[in-house]
Amino acid sequence: MKWAKSVPYYLPIILILAGCRSDEEVVLPDNPAPKVSKREVVAERGDVFASVVGRLTGVPDSVKGRFVRLLADSVRILRVGDTVRAVYRNDSLMRLELRRRSMVWEYVPSKGMFRGHRKFRALTPNYAEVEVKSTLWDAFMERGLPPILLVNLVNIFAWEVDFATETQKGDSLKVLYAPDGTVYYAEYIGKSVGRHVAARFMGSYYDEEGNSVRRAFLRSPLRSYRITSGFGVRFHPILRRWRPHHGVDYAAPYGTPVRSVANGTVIFAGWRRGYGKTVVVRHNNGYTTLYGHLSRIYVKRGQYVEQGQSIGAVGSTGLSTGPHLHYEVRHYGKRINPLLIKSEPEKPLPEDLRDEFQAVLREYRRLMEARRNPII
């Protein structure tokens, strides 16, 4: 008994374990390789980014919302084939991806990380450099450039350059573009408008500082026209007397589409005395715009319209001597000259995307130098 009391309590356990030992090695099972899987949604024609993300299954709404907000300032309409992908490891969400032709954007929810990867190896654009001798259209036809490219350029610079009235002999344009007319980078230098740059980034266009080229107001409600009467006092051709002219008259062919110059709500759509068929749209910050002498009206009172949306067609209704558009702008009820509006840009790129944008911008310029042609 005395011996038993003198033996440490843990000795029998050690003896038992020692007796169980064998010469065979204990082989532990290998850690199984993680199972990586993915779910994805491919954009179709007209899809918007938020709707494509919304169609992903198995992703919490809070994570989807964060992903959309991270790219909301830059991604709106997706191109056909753009893909939103969710990547899983052992059924746990690892990351979300937006995969586009030249960029892949990744968001890791667990770490809050967001980054982009360039895929410029797949980008093989064309380059053109033209000088205006009469009109930009003539310059494009002389070089044999696709008309869709000119249409896209006009739309991109619609907030900064009015190609119908502001192009002059000697103006120049440099453009990096895809065969389908997609513009990657464009630089326009005009005698009257100065220098303007537009670089494509995540489906939208920005200047060199990362500010959106979009503005609250388009420069004109028509794509092509000539100004026949400006803002001020003029001799009315029908009333045969001098009177104030509170807007700008744009001569254009009968039926030419008339665009709303900004997002807003239609507050009048119908016949208005001498204006004939008229549409009035209320915008933010106290602005309203009026479009008169229309031949047709495409909207109704109370309807929300987006910038660039067709709201009517050029006509000659009311006190009019020929097809044209009478366009007015009021700010808190005061009539102002539409041609002098200095519109503010939309939101700039978020700070966490600016480095990526500058890298894309540098790559565009490198590609331009590699493909540069002399002016013809």
Structure in words:
- The structure is a single chain.
- The chain has 376 residues and is an alpha+beta fold.
- The chain has three domains: 36-121, Nuclear Transport Factor 2, Chain: A; 126-214 and 345-370, Nuclear Transport Factor 2, Chain: A (Roll); 226-340, Glucose Permease (Domain IIA), CATH 2.70.70.10.
- It contains seven helices and 22 strands.
- The chain has helices at 2-6, 11-20, 49-54, 61-71, 136-143, 147-156, 351-370; strands at residues 36-42, 83-89, 92-99, 103-108, 113-118, 126-131, 172-177, 183-190, 194-201, 204-206, 226-229, 232-235, 242-245, 248-251, 257-259, 264-272, 276-282, 287-297, 304-305, 310-314, 324-331, 334-336.
- The strands form four sheets. Strands 11, 14, 15, 16, 17, 18, 19, 20, 21 and 22 form a ten-stranded antiparallel sheet that branches. The protein has a five-stranded antiparallel sheet with strand order 1-2-3-4-5, with helices on one face.
- The termini are far apart.
Features:
376 residues, alpha+beta, Nuclear Transport Factor 2, Chain: A, Glucose Permease (Domain IIA), ten-stranded antiparallel β-sheet, five-stranded antiparallel β-sheet
- How many DSSP helices? 7
Gyration radius, rounded: 32 Å
Quote the beta fraction.
25-35%
Q: Pick out the low-confidence regions.
A: 1-29, 231-236
- Main sheet summary: 10 strands, antiparallel
Classified by CATH, the class of the largest domain is: Alpha Beta
Number of domains: 3
Helix content: 10-25%
The structure class reads alpha+beta
Kindly, what is the distance between the CA atoms of the first and last residues, rounded to a whole number of angstroms? Answer: 113 Å
SSE run: HHEHHEEEEEHHEEEEEEEEEEEEEEEEH
Count of extended strands: 22
Overall, the morphology is globular
- Mean pLDDT equals 79
Based on the structure given, which CATH architecture of the largest domain is correct?
Roll
- The CATH topology of the largest domain corresponds to Nuclear Transport Factor 2, Chain: A
